[in-house]
């Protein structure tokens, strides 16, 4: 099967017409994950025999199908629904809520909620990469503003950088390139500095604001700053406008699409935002292929998700 030709869809109708049977979906997924040659999940070195609609691992004697791939494991969702859901997830310019996917796909909202969280979990491969060149760093907090809350819902002692009702988030972005964004324990130097030194190549130039958490960087890497407290936002090529635009987009997506998200799942949403940002120059076809061909790791079950 010529995968690239199969993925040149102009509409959801063309996608459905191409994958109009479960067998076509299975053939496509086997080509994606196994390159057309089934690999035993029990022993990757074993020969594999085809037995009707299953495969048999010679070394272990166990049977398997494409359902043993982590994304599909223990799932009763039809493969056509999976492919359509992944297409919606990657083709939407902005974020996609479980309610929207429920309306688009016809699956239950509970099913789409779990499905989207599984996809977000598998997006994390894109959120761990080395950055180089000019890198902007900044920190923000995700959580509602106390002044916007009803009187009986205001949180005491919540102001500024209080972590009582907010989650600290740290981000790095290579100008013209990719971003890495993660939830952190605090915005102190001992928390931020190791992340910068791990992700930024030593030949890079790091651009930040005046936050004390970056005070130690000049010992290790070229470091330029602007002082926002003194109304200095740009100094030559030094600014943090790129990362601040990312914060604005993330918060707009949370408020506009999800309204509110659980603090236990913020990192998963950040994985999704990073995937969308890092693939912003890809076509929907390319982004679809990029995500589905990089699905690796453990399966996320409903029980694991709700007990986080």
From TrEMBL:
Domain of life: Bacteria
Chain ranges passing through the membrane: none
ISXO2-like transposase domain boundaries: 130-278
NCBIfam families: transpos_IS1595 (NF033547)
Listed name of the protein: Transposase-like protein
Lineage: Bacteria, Pseudomonadati, Bacteroidota, Flavobacteriia, Flavobacteriales
